[in-house]
Specification:
By secondary structure, the protein is mainly alpha-helical. Helices cover 77% and strands 0% of the residues. It has ten helices and no strands. The protein is elongated.
Length: 216
C-alpha cells in the first residue's frame, strides 16, 4: 500500500502560508486599512487562490486576526498583571508588557467601526481595559492617583493615548520601546514627571530581570 508521503508537507505548507498571510495582513493593514486581498496576496508571496483558500473574504481574514489578537492580548494581560506591586509601578509594568502587543494589533482599532464593529473590538480589548481600570481604582485608594476622573473614564483616555503614541511610532515620528509611553501614561494618570520616570525605570528593570519566555 502506498503511503501518503505528501500529506504532511502539504499540511506544513498550508500552516506556513496561513501564518505568512496573517503576519503580512497585520503589517499591511497597519499601513493601509484599504488594501485589497489581491494586494495582500502579492505582499505575502502567495497566489490569490491560496489566500482565498484560507480566507474566503475580507471578513474572514479580519476575524482570524481578531481571534489571534484576542488570544495574544489575554496572554499578555496575564503576564502583565502585578497586583502585589504599588499601583503606579503596576501600571508602568502593565504598559511595558502590553506595548509590543499593542503595536502589533493597533490596526484593529482603525478597522473597528467599518469592518469588525466597535463591540467586537471592545470584546477583544476588555481584559486590558478592565485591568487598567482596576489599577487606577487601587491607585486612588493608595493615594498615588488623584480622583480627577472616574477610573473607567481615565482608563479609556489612557488607551486612546497609547494608540496615538503607537501610531506616531508607526509613522516614524516617535521612537519608543514602551518606556516613553509608560512615563506619559503615568503623568496623565496624575503622577509627577520625576516620580513617573523613576517608577518606569523600576518596572523596566523588573522586566529585564525576568527569565525570557520559553518559545515552543
Amino acid at each position: 500500500m502506498t503511503k501518503p508521503v505528501a500529506r504532511v508537507p502539504q499540511r506544513r505548507n498550508a500552516r506556513s502560508n496561513r501564518a505568512r498571510i496573517l503576519a503580512t495582513a497585520r503589517h499591511e493593514l497597519g499601513r493601509n486599512p484599504d488594501i485589497t486581498l489581491e494586494e495582500l496576496a502579492r505582499a505575502a508571496g502567495v497566489v490569490r487562490r491560496t489566500l482565498f483558500g484560507h480566507f474566503p473574504g475580507r471578513g474572514a481574514l479580519l476575524e482570524a486576526l481578531a481571534e489571534e489578537a484576542s488570544e495574544t492580548l489575554r496572554d499578555a494581560v496575564a503576564v502583565g498583571v502585578r497586583p502585589e506591586e504599588p499601583a503606579e509601578r503596576a501600571l508602568a509594568y502593565f504598559t511595558l508588557s502590553m506595548w509590543p502587543v499593542g503595536d502589533r494589533y493597533r490596526m484593529l482599532l482603525a478597522l473597528a467601526q467599518r469592518d469588525l464593529g466597535a463591540e467586537r473590538v471592545a470584546e477583544i480589548l476588555r481584559p486590558a481595559r478592565d485591568e487598567v481600570t482596576a489599577i487606577l481604582e487601587r491607585g486612588r485608594r493608595e493615594g498615588v492617583f488623584p480622583a480627577h476622573l472616574p477610573p473607567a473614564v481615565l482608563s479609556a483616555g489612557l488607551e486612546a493615548m497609547t494608540v496615538a503614541l503607537l501610531e506616531q511610532v508607526n509613522t516614524g515620528a516617535l521612537e519608543d520601546d514602551g518606556t516613553r509611553a509608560a512615563v506619559a501614561l503615568l503623568i496623565a494618570a496624575g503622577v509627577p514627571e520625576r516620580r513617573a520616570r523613576a517608577v518606569v525605570e523600576e518596572a523596566a528593570a523588573m522586566i529585564v530581570a525576568e527569565p525570557a519566555p520559553v518559545v515552543e
